[in-house]
Specification:
This protein has about 140 residues and is mostly beta strands. It has strands at about 1-5, 10-15, 50-55, 60-65, 70-80, 85-90, 95-100, 105-110, 115, 125-130, 135-144. It is flat, with a radius of gyration of 22 Å. The protein starts with a strand and ends with a strand.
Length: about 140
């Protein structure tokens, strides 16, 4: 990657194709984008945002069981205020145990393959073991 001067500023360019960082177009054209925009799950309204907080040692239903439907988690962030153990469950079956020895944030960034998938008719649950405040944000789909 090199730079070139465009309108008095240093701009990154490809070694072979100069691109305008403001538009993504090849410099000198108005309609020649270097990368064609495509639709993806990440940018569609198909993802449902779930936000919640846990402050007791309990089982929390994050996404309810729905007849003939699976829950798929594509992005997740958990923020714990202190030592905590979170068990991610597919109904009553353990998918993963997340151990936090102290306050921390865990982020599972967007993936085209789901981080977790429940069985049909199964809820997605978090089981917490302490009273440390735990906040979560998930982006999910519910599909047959």
């Amino acid at each position: 990657m090199s730079t070139q001067t465009i309108s008095g500023r240093q701009q990154p360019t490809s070694e072979f194709i100069p691109i305008d960082p403001a538009t993504g177009n090849v410099i000198g054209t108005a309609t020649q984008p270097l990368v064609t925009q495509t639709s993806s799950l990440q940018t569609t309204p198909d993802l449902t945002n779930l936000v919640g907080a846990i402050s007791t040692a309990t089982t929390t239903v994050v996404s309810t069981a729905t007849a003939s439907v699976r829950t798929r988690v594509y992005r997740m962030r958990i923020n714990v205020a202190g030592a905590q153990q979170i068990t991610v469950q597919n109904g009553a079956s353990t998918l993963e145990v997340l151990n936090f020895p102290a306050a921390a944030v865990l982020t599972y960034d967007f993936s085209t393959r789901p981080w977790y998938t429940t069985n049909v008719n199964a809820a997605l649950n978090f089981v917490s073991t302490t009273t440390a405040v735990t906040n979560y944000v998930l982006e999910i789909t519910k599909v047959a």
